[in-house]
Amino acid sequence: MDVVISPTPVSAASQAGAKVAEAIANNPRLVLGVATGSSPLGIYEYVRREIEENGLDVSGITCFALDEYVGLPEDHPESYHRVVAATVTEPWGLKPEQVHVPAGNTGNPRQAALDYDQAIKDAGGVDLQIVGIGGNGHIGFNEPGSSLGSRTRVKTLHPRTREDNARFFDGDMNAVPIHCVTQGIGTILDAGSVVMIASGEAKADAIAKMVEGAVSSNCPASALQLHPHVFVYIDDAAAADLQHRDYYDFAVANADKLPGA
Asked: What kind of fold does domain 2-255 have according to CATH?
């Protein structure tokens, strides 16, 4: 993992956004995995500015969302169909057919999950996957106990996740769906590279376990240690529990001093 620690959430998001924008510029046909929640919003805003101010071409990219609630109509304001449309599709000027989200409001969500996993494969796989991290270490909606080889499937949301997400449902945890369709950890690990974005002290414990702890289903995000190209962008607060923070700072500061770099 390349761990990049910034003083503020804004600067962390800007660095992560620059990484994503660079990937799009280098591959106009990029297949991009997009995440929801508050963490990646700064990335999406950075890319939007690059499109508007510097002419970044996104006309040929394809996007796949990480997950979707089961049972919410697609036009519900908190369905990830609607959230991704509002934060990525519309601000970036993408055509709806460029953006794919799992079908959660269907009579057979398990089949929808299988179909979604196949759609990613049919697209040639995700080139760059954006992820956040839950306070309990989840990525996507892969809760603690998830198989590290899992594929896109239906999962039951952890009570902590539903409590954390209640803020999007007027604070009503009972309004948060119980089930979801989520890309599996194995699906995420298939991506060519992964950009992780996190900020705030509430994420510090999970970040430390992900980066420095054992690879374990107790912290699903720790599976990213098995991936060869992971870029972790965090602020000072999220880095608070890292034991080897000084080393990560030193490594980033000296990255361009490697001969041939």
From this structure: Rossmann fold (3.40.50)
